[in-house]
Amino acid sequence: MTDIYTTPESDLASNKHEVTYAGFWIRAAASIIDSIWIIAVTLPLAWMVYGPSYFESTDFVMGYADFFISYVLPFVIVMVFWVYKSATPGKMALRLKIVDADSFEKASTTKLLIRYFGYFPSLIVLSLGFFWVAWDKRKQGWHDKFANTVVIKNG
Predict the structure, then answer these.
(1) pLDDT for 124-154, tens place per residue?
(2) How far apart are CA 149 and CA 23, in angstroms?
(3) What does the alpha-carbon distance between residue 72 and residue 120 come to, in Å, rounded to a whole number?
(4) For 55-90, how does the pLDDT look when each residue is reduced to its tens digit (9 = 90+)?
(5) Residue 89: which of 97, 150, 106 has the closest Cα?
(6) pTM of the predicted protein model
(7) In this structure, are strands 96-100 and 149-153 parallel, antiparallel, or unpaired?
(8) Are 38 and 77 in contact (CB under 8 A)?
């Protein structure tokens, strides 16, 4: 007896979202690139406000301007890049982007905020949250897991 009914093809079977997750080393390289350009922006500004004493100080924060330059400004710049480009300059240089882990579409601003603030617990526990990228099957750090995002190779 022949089977009259055949199983319909599923969109899931074709793996509509074939992606390559960005691993630890390429993400580390992107982070180094980003650190360099952030320092290139913030240190001259801090020097213009505080002069040479900025580099001699042992204070964690020298004042309101230092807090703005060292913490608020990098946060704003990174969020603007993430929201509008889905990547920082370091990630763009290495053809990486941050996307929603379920849809592989652009991540929402809320998810990106959660991802940014997820850096702190990722860092506090011996930076284990960042190293997690090396062991995770989807190459997610803790900050990615908190926000339900992934970093993928773009192109």
Answers:
(1) 989 999 999 999 999 999 999 999 999 999 8
(2) 14
(3) 15
(4) 888 888 999 999 999 999 999 999 999 999 999 999
(5) 97
(6) 0.85
(7) antiparallel
(8) yes
- DSSP class of residue 88 equals -
Token reading at 150 = 């992934």
**Phi, then psi, of 29 in degrees rounded to 5:** -60, -45
Crossing angle of the two packed helices 109-117 and 73-85, in degrees rounded to 10: 140
Tell which phi-psi region holds residue 128, choosing left (phi > 0), alpha (psi between -120 and 50) or beta.
alpha
Please identify which residue in the block is written with the tokens 């990228």.
Answer: 133
* C-alpha span between 65 and 46 (Å, rounded): 8
Residue type, 122: S
Give residue 60's Cα distance to chain centre: 25
Query: How far apart are alpha carbons 126 and 117 in whole angstroms?
Result: 16
Separation of CA 114 from chain center? 11
Backbone angles phi and psi of 154, in degrees to 5:
-110, 85
In whole angstroms, how far apart are CA 155 and each of 9, 32, 65, 122, 152? 27, 21, 40, 28, 9
